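Q: Protein A?
A:
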Amino acid sequence: MRSLAVASHVSPFAAARRRPRSSASGREAVSQCLKCERNQDRPLGALRIGYSQGSSQRHGSKNLFTPAAAAVSVEQIEVSTYLPKGDMWSVHKFGGTCMGTPQRIQNVADVVLGDSSERKLIIVSAMSKVTDMMYNLVHKAQSRDDSYTEALDKVFEKHMSAAKELLDGEDLARFLSQLHSDISNLRAMLRAIYIAGHATESFSEFVVGHGELWSSQMLCYAIQKSGASCSWMDTREVLVVKPSGPDMVDPDYVESEKRLQKWFSRQPAEIIVATGFIASTPENIPTTLKRDGSDFSAAIIGSLVRARQVTIWTDVDGVFSADPRKVSEAVILSTLSYQEAWEMSYFGANVLHPRTIIPVMKDNIPIVIRNMFDLSAPGTMICKQPANEDADLDACVKSFATIDKLALVNVEGTGMAGVPGTANAIFSAVKDVGANVIMISQASSEHSICFAVPEKEVAAVSAALHARFREALAAGRLSKVEVIQGCSILAAVGLRMASTPGVSAILFDALAKANINVRAIAQGCSEYNITVVLKQEDCVRALRAAHSRFFLSKTTLAVGIIGPGLIGATLLNQLREQVAVLKENMNIDVRVIGITGASRMLLSDTGVELTSWKENLQQEAKPADLANFVRHLSENHVFPNKVLVDCTADADVASHYYDWLKKGIHVITPNKKANSGPLDQYLKLRTLQRASYTHYFYEATVGAGLPIISTLRGLLETGDKILRIEGIFSGTLSYIFNNFEGSRSFSDVVTEAKEAGYTEPDPRDDLSGTDVARKVIILARESGLRLELSDIPVESLVPEALKSCLSADEYMQKLPSFDQDWATQRHDAEAAGEVLRYVGVVDVLNKKGRVELKRYKRDHPFAQLSGSDNIIAFTTSRYKEEQPLIVRGPGAGAEVTAGGVFCDILRLASYLGAPS
């Protein structure tokens, strides 16, 4: 009976050849639709307005349908061609973007023809934006907006121009004839809707479904041009669905399979192009699978034929680990389990239609998400989770998703504990107002229940709860019904979280270190997801912090460099050489997103190009503004961990550290001004740093790159008692006194040090001893002494007569007049077998500090230095005076100072989770 087909299934293409071009009247069109709604015995194909009954002879591969006999119904057809099922079938679904232009439709045809599967079922959406255009038509018509006619003309023009570019000859004529007929009938129907001022759901869905009819017909013709055997399927003849809730339908698999078998018995082509999105009710009334339902169509049909695979073609490379619009570092996932994809869909991730997974999951049919515009991308496979997949911490969390514009409702009271039915009463009230509960959290004490609902529904929920519990609130059994506005949900999704210890700890550690406060937590025993509620303003930062911890490096740092002078520029050059190595070997991703000097600043959202930062700072920079520079860093949500590196010696810059730390920005600096400034400000700064997850590192403030601060802290933290710290803390003065020997004059050595770059532009800044005093006060405070800088007596090496010199040049010119005095001091020391050294001393026992020029025996460690070395001796309860703990090494120079700052950056990364 292969040659027989019901008249209602006749190709609209064939019908168009016999039908007059004049459009049906509005009365006829509406009559047919009303007839559709009433007639429950008639096959669905008859629903299509303008379908003519009769027969059509097939000519080669050009016709889409086999001959039909008007007198035979679907029920009378004897199935003579068995519908094969199994791996021979591959199902492809192409979205609206893929079908957006004639060239793209041809590209789709090429992809289909390139698939080597024995049989192929192709599901297509309407051309891009067409579904919106069709919904808009109905909206305009029922709103009695006359512009619906112009909108319909645009729909017609869009498809007519696409067809003219894609098709030619008889194929083009047949398609345009059908398109004219459809548009005429739609115009009549829309006119009726306009007059009535109302459209029933079936009317609306019948109108909206035309986009898929036209796009699928054009694709079928495009495939047939190659000579391939291809049939066109109106899925309203096959897919049967039943309403299951607002904007939801459930497939009737048994009836759909019967209809598919009957359809295939008439048209057993190797390639079938079918409409997505549309279906029919059991009463043969047109309906849709609701918004984004074409994916659902593909999954249902894939299940019906037990396909080897369902491929969803779209315009992205696959499923991302997070929304790439919020997390630029999101990665493509190679695999997802069905459950993971389901969870991601629920939480708003742009993966699939939320119900697409159900049909394929029961038959273990994999879904592959592919990019139509990058065929080389492998995409993401959604399938049954492999049993042997390693459950390491990085693999167990597959993705993160967020939902914004939520409100948290908290119902609290001691009268709730142990009272049966309280939760039922709460959620019955919520159900009565039709609100959607996104998440529920309850403490085991039963003292409170909180749940999240969309912000737009919370007013009704709050009113309903206050009404329902009016007596309990008045009696004090409930203390409050609280609404917390401006919330978001962050969900971590992963099938293997349940069997992997430590996932929750890592997630909450990442949020804490990004300074994120969590308002509520929910996690089911299946542990497919961990859900947290937080402030909406923190949501993107929280998403990036969590994503960074699991998907990027262990630590990603956004760095702002203040002061690209000698030390800052050297640091930038060191970073340039090491960033790739750090990312590859240590999972530390350092991004310099801003550089500012005194007059210019260079900003970037994702990272300054370090190979050309100097040129860009000159050519692309903006006027320097420290407040805007800090705002750029703090408001950058690409990277959760932010650090400001102050490479200046500016007290004004240092005065901002407290505010930066309070904003959650880490601070690293070689600038001594903050830690040696007013004691109350220092204590305030350290108290904040200790009380938060924000870090403040300043190793390079004493000893450049030498581990002075860290050594001192290590001693204190392990219970040692500091008795005395004594050292040569100035690389400049170390160089001067190491070279002030023999017959050399003091002024010559100072000149040499200045020309070598060891001194400040004005050597008096070094020789005054103030810099050493600052280092002494820093170490004193680290040791627990509460001293001000003014408490430290300093022996200045600048003669009193030269302190009033107006310039460094004047000072250098007059300095030789004091060479004899210095020569005398050196002679006296040498006569005693000693050397001169300029030292700082922290006397912890006596709670004092001082800076002075001292003489040491030639066998003393301080006399053994060379160049600009620093040396620091720690005398403690463990390290006695006769054998103190000594740290020695280069204590001056841009390379070692920048290296000390770099070490602090790596120390910060370690604190934030990078591997040690």
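Q: Protein B?
A:
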Amino acid sequence: MAASAPTPPAPGSSAEGRCGYYVAKKRRFCRMVAAAGKRFCGEHAGGAEEENARKRILCPLDPKHTVYEDQLAKHLKKCNSREKPKPDFFIQDINAGLKDETEIPEQLVPISSLTEEQLENLIKKLKRASEGLNSTLKGRIMSHPALHDALNDPKNGDSATKHLKQQASILGNIEKLKLLGPRRCFVEFGAGKGKLSHWVDIALKDAEKVHFILVEKVTTRFKVDGKHKRKDSVFERLQIDIQHLCLNKIPVLSREKLPVVGIGKHLCGAATDLALRCLVETYGASFEERNEEPSAKRMKNNKTDEEMNTMAQEGSGNNIPEKWTPVAGIVIALCCHHRCDWRHYVGRDYFRARGLGAVEFHYFQRMSSWATCGMRDTSVDASGVPTGQDDQSDNSEDNDDGGHGATDGHADSLPGCLPVEEKKKIGHLCKLLIDQGRVEYLRGQGFRPALQYYTDPAVSLENVLLTALPSQPSSAEATA
């Protein structure tokens, strides 16, 4: 004979000091602590006989919790979801870019809804605009001794090893550009757990007066910020969207006037454009307007030629650029071009010069996902019927931003059924064109930018690194 279902216990049999509300769905009592002299917790107080006269309502700031209606005004002053006072370095949309909303295209149809002729015209425009661009970037896959032990740790899984290889190569490229050195501030955009800054700090060893500013717009768990023990390095984490970040309002930068090195690992989509504008226009331009020099430049200018020659011979001058500027350099691993935004994009002038606009940019940034979405080629059986489909596979980079967003579907949903290899080539062309716009923007702002592969595609399909150094004067200019 089958056993009957257990009968719910009586309301009075809850644990002592716990809420007396019976949760029928969970077939148990609520386990929240009830206030002294109360039978129910705050959430279930409306069911208590003694509280019937008081009504609980949803909090207008966060409907995930409730509050007594007669205590709403008091609650709003202390609710954790209330809007916090904005810091001095928050300036609304300072790095946003486009101000004219009329340039932003209205809702456009997805690529799968385009006619075959429309898609062909887009691809022709893409190839015409990409003529003359070098689609084969230089490989600069590097490493750094600071990560030697971590890379050879047998406890590492595949994912950890891939991230370490990328961090080691980024760090190696930072060192090759002579950006590792004392008396500077590293700003890591899209910092996440802050591991890239962590390895930079380890690589700097005994360098003095080094500051790290970690910028991340969301709360992050398992941060490594608290693991740094060096006395000469200072870490500061800012929870803010890059779109609203004004670097020269940050106390350490406004006080010390340190040259900044902008770094980032997989800075997703539009965040790269926001970071570039934050560094070049917001921070760099502020020194030009005030005609101020960073402290490191003042230090160098105060040294005699003999002292500088001695520093160079000892090796301490290897990481001091000849010409100091507010932004000493930029090293950013690019990612997720399909999440770019015309409003924030820094290469709009580059696109316009090639007869392209917001509509073409929208489709190019969507098509860029074809390069990394892990599609499989379709096989054909003896009857001529395709037996496979393009697949949104797990091969996409599991990056710090949570992986790639949704892409524009399978090849068989596109007009003309483009072959997989052709789609990948088009996707790479789209990424290259978008990145070239960033390169031209930096060049126009007085930098020497470059694109290179910094890791193997087997480690990450998002394997392009954007670097930039301030343009150095020629020897003729220096002696003029």
